[in-house]
Amino acid sequence: MADRGGCCPPMDLFRSEAMQLVQLIVPMESAHLTVSYLGDLGLLQFKDLNSDKSPFQRTYAAQIKRCGEMARKLRFFKEQMLKAGFSTSTKPGAENDINLDDLEVKLGELEAELIEMNANGEKLQRGYNELLEYKLVLQKAGEFFASAQRAATAQQREIGSQQMGDESIETPLLQEQETSTDLSKQVKLGFITGLVPREKSMAFERILFRATRGNVLLKQVPAEDPVTDPVSGEKMEKNVFVVFYSGERAKNKILKICEAFGANRYPFAEDLGKQGLMINEVSGRISELKTTIDAGLLLRDNLLRTIGDQFEQWNIKVKKEKSIYHTLNMLSLDVTKKCLVAEGWSPVFATKQIQEALQRAAFDSNSQVGAIFQVLHTRESPPTYFRTNKFTSAFQEIVDAYGVAKYQEANPGVYTIVTFPFLFAVMFGDWGHGICLLLATLFFIVREKKLSSQKLGDITEMTFGGRYVIMMMSLFSIYTGLIYNEFFSVPFELFGRSAYACRDLSCRDATSVGLIKVGDTYPFGVDPAWHGSRSELPFLNSLKMKMSILLGVAQMNLGIILSYFNATFFSNSLNIWFQFIPQMIFLNSLFGYLSLLIIVKWCTGSQADLYHILIYMFLSPTDDLGENQLFPGQKTAQIVLLLLALVSVPWMLLPKPFLLKKQHENRHQGQSYAPLESTDETLLSVANHDSHGHDHEEFEFGEVFVHQLIHTIEFVLGAVSNTASYLRLWALSLAHSELSVVFYEKVLLLAWGFNNVIILIVGIIVFIFATVGVLLVMETLSAFLHALRLHWVEFQNKFYEGDGYKFHPFAFALLGDEDD
């Protein structure tokens, strides 16, 4: 839908697009290309005509399995590229030129090659790590043996010198006894060398001692740098150990303990000469392996780069093919098995585009027979489709989160674009905070092209998706902030000088009684003189509370008026006469009258008590109003309005169920024959018929009456509770204003009063964090949720059924990035 080319009507959000149920009969040879072209178009929602079959029984199950296998290989390539630190190429490619069979073979070859490279690389790397450990053992154990040999030689020299100096009469006898010992009875000690993880070294030593009953000698030397373990491939700190033992049984025990502790053993020669040769040999092999590994990594990187250049094209191709075969599996096979039959929903405006796509597919596939396109007549309720753009889509999502609109019923999303940010701003009125919100959302709007192509976090993605909602909220907040005359709770004389001044120098700002009007009324918003006075809170409370009721009654009236447009559109006269009219009379007889009293009181400056008027309108409608009278004939008007409100309740409740019963009886007696309707008229009226059970064979009068009773009670009670619910606008506005005052006076001004730079800096930092954390984040979320509730409950329940289902066309543009 990127290019509408003037064929489509202008975007109309008030009603969903007119839909039609179409049938396509497509020859087998052009079926694949036809579905592909329809996927590019993205304006047809296919119906599953094989819902009784399992996925494995369908015609194209084998092709889907092939595509799934190719998708698995591509996921494997992606994992390997991410491990190697490569990114896939984002440049567009001509995936249509790729043959699926060739791609399958190529992916298989590349996978086999990459698996072989990985296996060889892992084998070489393991050998390399083993040689590094071996070299370390040779060095550390060699140092131990060399030092031991030097110590033994020094000890022998010392003993020899002592014997020469201290000869006695018994010395020859002892020497003869020593030399006469049988050499065959001398014990030969064996030893094992290797590395053990340092964290296990203490336990290793303890187990060795216990297993051999102390008949071992263990020497450990820590390796300076971490060593890569050949088995696990992880870097860890290790100790080089040498264990001396006597006997085969002890050796077997030590070997088993080494295996249990993951200690790698390496052969070692006692001879110093052999040790030197082994170190040289191992060093040579290490350098050779290093060269071989580097060459292998270079080859692997080149292969991954080649894959990366074409990865996106291959991935898109495989996803498209898989989605095409999924769609083909939803088509039913004709009796002749020479063509496929498809059914689906499409917008009426897309008829020409779908027919062009069918003709192009038949021509490009060299099919001798073209596809047949025909519109089916149905009583089934069509899907709901609104054409939105990046600005309106977020507002439509707010409505859809409550419930998708029934086919072609009035869409509250149109009004939500203005009313939602406005009601938010009534609760968030501060033009300083509004500017902060605007700057934050402008960051997302300016960088939207870059951010839309990136993977964002959950909260960031949510904020980015609603960037235009936040922009509208911030603009309206600036507007209401100027009306409230609050900039971080500080008033400014932006639109002229204040109309009030002090009577004398001593009055200061203690109370508004000491103020006199010296100039013209402040032209826009609240006069700055009210701020800081003792009368500020009672004045603003009265203003905001009355304004909340006016806004609430106006929005509820809008909701009832929209129910009239719904009834007119669906030709439902019963809803006009027995729902719209009594609801308008009831709501406006009570709360419309209250709104009128508020406006009259503001205009006349009267001191009348509106609470008293409204309460005694019910309790004592015939009593004189006295000082609470706002206009002549008010008492008579109140009695008339009260009677109208009382009459409207049975008006809503009683006639409609009886008239519905009469309509049902007339229809089944053959008294309501009518000419056949056109497709459009049928689709428009079907939702209305279905919602009242007209198509049921049996008319349950009791059920309909109870439903109408519930609806009437809900409206009557809801009129009171919903009007009271709008007082949240006043409550949250007051809370926001008072929090702003607290943070300004008790943090910023308090820190300023100390005349200390450090305290001032700390105060400014606390003020910034409190403003951002509480007022710009928590209060924004709070006001957003309350505005959401006012729309979902108080506004939409007057007219919006929201029991439709979304139009989900088969479109390649909607293919997600998630793995299948």
How would you describe this structure to a colleague?
- The chain crosses the membrane at residues 422-446, 467-484, 547-565, 577-600, 636-654, 758-778.
- Its main location: membrane.
- It comes from Hibiscus sabdariffa (roselle).
- By secondary structure, the protein is an alpha+beta fold.
- The chain is 60% helix and 8% strand.
- The chain is built from 23 helices and 13 strands.
- The protein has helices spanning 28-41, 61-84, 100-165, 171-179, 201-211, 248-260, 272-328, 351-364, 392-402, 413-427, 431-446, 448-452, 458-465, 467-484, 536-569, 573-604, 610-619, 634-653, 655-668, 679-691, 701-725, 728-752, 757-795; strands at 19-27, 45-46, 190-197, 217-222, 227-228, 235-236, 238-245, 264-266, 332-333, 339-347, 372-376, 500-502, 515-517.
- Strands 1, 2, 9, 10 and 11 form a 5-stranded antiparallel sheet that branches. Strands 4-7-3-8 form a 4-stranded antiparallel sheet, with helices on both faces.
- Mean pLDDT is 87; it is low at 1-11, 173-181 and 671-696.
Task: Walk me through the topology.
Layout lengths: L18 E9 H14 L3 E2 L14 H24 L15 H66 L5 H9 L10 E8 L3 H11 L5 E6 L4 E2 L6 E2 L1 E8 L2 H13 L3 E3 L5 H57 L3 E2 L5 E9 L3 H14 L7 E5 L15 H11 L10 H15 L3 H16 L1 H5 L5 H8 L1 H18 L15 E3 L12 E3 L18 H34 L3 H32 L5 H10 L14 H20 L1 H14 L10 H13 L9 H25 L2 H25 L4 H39 L25
Antiparallel strand pairs: 1-10, 1-11, 2-10, 3-7, 3-8, 4-7, 5-6, 9-10, 12-13
Helix pairs in contact: 1-7, 1-8, 2-3, 2-7, 3-7, 5-6, 9-10, 10-14, 10-22, 10-23, 11-14, 15-16, 15-21, 15-22, 16-18, 16-21, 19-21, 22-23
Subcellular location: Membrane
Pfam families: V_ATPase_I
Protein name: V-type proton ATPase subunit a
